[in-house]
Amino acid sequence: MGERKQGEAVNVAGRVIDSAREFIFRNWKDIRILLLGLFFGAILGAVFLQEGGRPLWDSPTATPTQPATSSPMPTYTTLPPLPTFTALPSHTPFPTHTSLPTYTPPPTATPTDTATATDTPTNTPTSTVTPSSTATFTPYPTYTALPSHTPLPTHTALPTYTPPPTATPTFTPIPPRAISSSIRAESKLITAQMDLAHADVSVRNPESRACAYSAKHVAKGVIEAGIELSAIDEDNIQYHFIGNYYTLRVPAPALSSCRIEYFRQYEQRGGGTAFCFANNWQEMSDIGRHLSMKAFVQDALENGILEKAERQATIVLGDLVRELTGSNVHIEYEEAPEEAIIPSSCKLDPPSGWEKDSEEGWKRSS
């Protein structure tokens, strides 16, 4: 019953709401005009009160700020016409309310009979259900267990690899005695050579004006310089463990040998009279050889043959020691004498009985 009353109340409320909406929609124009009239009337009343400084009717009670005597109304000023009223757009009506259907409660179930324990069935089954077929049961095949799993053999870890110890090379230096023996086997090291030539080597014999004679010669010679290695012993060689190098101290470069490879007397002048001694042109050639060799040695020294020999010796000896020992080598040279040592092969004495005179000529001394 409660659900039925609730449905009727909902239906009544819906009908009331629909009636209110329909009234507002039908009378909306009149309600809008009434509201506009009230709005403009309130505006006009407020204007009159503000211009007169008093209310619209006389007050029977005077106040200090509002005397009881009335004052004439101010001259009425015609108000401008109201603006033309523009109608509002047509109202779109609300959709028609559809009433909810009337709630109809379900019918109450009423039992029609009552069973008792003494009731006896009035009918007896007259048919017997006979199975049309008999199902034959087929048993599942006998389960055969899988063969037992044979576990894998236990893994045996490989032994830990132990690297062999790193071999530390032990360097054994070559004894200085072995090095000095190899160097002394070279005996003498020739590292520089100069080929020189001179022409017009003049020899003059100014014995007297009538017996004077002279000759001219042309010569070519070779000057060699190097280092004497036979004097090097093990005391001149020192090995330095820090740095792995050898120090080799050797004699200073010097002239090694000199020779004249070509010499010719090409001009003879003077002498040969009956009052003069016989002209000795061979001795004049010997003097020319002496002068040529002396000039060759001087030219070689001035042109730096010893310095050239030292540079070459550093290269040759360094390669020799490195090949023997596998280590670097530092070459040191002994201090050279102020005057170069001239070997005997670089000295050609003039013939005996001749000497140089003051006039840059040669004359017989006896």
Topology, element by element:
Blueprint: H1 2-26, H2 28-52, H3 176-184, E1 188-205, E2 213-228, E3 237-240, E4 245-250, E5 254-270, H4 281-302, H5 305-325, E6 328-333, E7 354-356, E8 362-364
Parallel strand pairs: 4-6
Antiparallel strand pairs: 1-2, 2-5, 3-4, 7-8
Question: Would you give an account of this structure?
Answer:
This protein is an alpha+beta fold and 366 residues long. Among the domains are: 2-38; 176-364, no CATH class. It is 28% helix and 20% strand. The chain contains 5 helices and 8 strands; from the N terminus they run H-H-H-E-E-E-E-E-H-H-E-E-E. The protein has helices at 2-26, 28-52, 176-184, 281-302, 305-325, and strands spanning 188-205, 213-228, 237-240, 245-250, 254-270, 328-333, 354-356, 362-364. A 3-stranded antiparallel sheet has the order 1-2-5. A hairpin with a 5-residue loop joins strand 7 (354-356) and strand 8. The longest helix is centred in the first third of the chain and has 25 residues, at 2-26. The chain is elongated, with a radius of gyration of 77 Å. The termini are far apart. Mean pLDDT is 76; it is low at 61-70 and 114-122.
